[in-house]
Design goal:
This protein is α/β, with parallel strands linked by helices. Helix content is 48%, strand content 15%. It folds into two domains: 134 residues, Rossmann fold; 73 residues. Strands 3-2-1-4-5-6 form a six-stranded parallel β-sheet. Helix 8 links the parallel strand 4 and strand 5. Helix 1 packs antiparallel against helix 2 and helix 1 packs antiparallel against helix 4. The longest helix is centred in the middle third of the chain and has 21 residues. The chain is globular, with a radius of gyration of 17 Å. It starts with a strand and ends with a helix.
């Protein structure tokens, strides 16, 4: 029986994956088309990982130059400016708003995101969703650490928890913590093609899935 649900945010609660992709392209457009293409491909292959880690990788492996603290902070600030308002106004994944409104009182609901802590809290609050979630976790806390903390703090058995994500990193976090997993499929079919897990196009039938677990 499921007692708690952990949601990734981008691509699971709101349709905001493309917003983040466009932000990476915009941030590095001065590096030229080929570099931007490599950066965007890296980002898309590693959804669910914090921008902090992505910036470090991009500089080390793609740009081949050091990233000092000042430039790192500038990148973080610019990225936030590019995405926050757009994510706040992005449409919900179909069924997401209705689900949390109708079932947040039945299940303990949490957001676990790779978005920085302060930013994800701000976005959730601006969307007037904060009262639906018992906890909101963002970077630098890793998703694996966040799920582990939820299990301990709420005294939950892994079998009583469902993680809804849209990235392989989400799947791995769920498996590392032995919790149930459902993949939201939306232009990421190839990522989950070989993964044996429950898959949904949106959240309209999430309650029916919960009843089977």
């Amino acid at each position: 029986m499921i007692k708690a649900i952990i949601f990734d945010f981008d691509g699971v609660i709101v349709e905001s994956v493309e917003i983040k992709t466009n932000a990476f392209a915009k941030l590095f457009e001065h590096e030229g088309g080929e570099i931007v293409k490599r950066i965007v491909n890296y980002h898309l292959d590693n959804t669910g990982i914090s921008r902090y880690e992505k910036f470090k990788y991009i500089y080390k492996e793609i740009l081949n130059r050091p990233l000092n603290d000042d430039e790192f902070q500038m990148l973080c600030n610019k990225f936030s400016v590019l995405v926050v308002d757009s994510v706040v106004s992005a449409p919900y994944v179909k069924g997401a708003e209705e689900f949390v409104e109708n079932y947040a009182s039945r299940y303990k609901c949490f957001v676990v995101s790779a978005t920085p802590q302060r930013e994800i809290e701000q976005i959730v609050q601006k969307r007037n969703m904060n009262y639906f979630f018992k906890g909101i976790y963002g970077a630098p806390t890793t998703k694996k650490e966040a799920v582990k903390a939820i299990l301990l703090k709420e005294n939950l058995k892994p079998t009583n928890v469902l993680y809804v994500g849209d990235a392989i990193s989400d799947y791995k976090v769920a498996k590392d913590n032995s919790v149930n997993f459902v993949a939201r499929i939306n232009n990421n079919e190839s990522i989950f093609a070989e993964i044996d897990c429950l898959k949904i196009k949106d959240l309209t039938n999430l309650q029916k899935i919960l009843e089977t677990l």
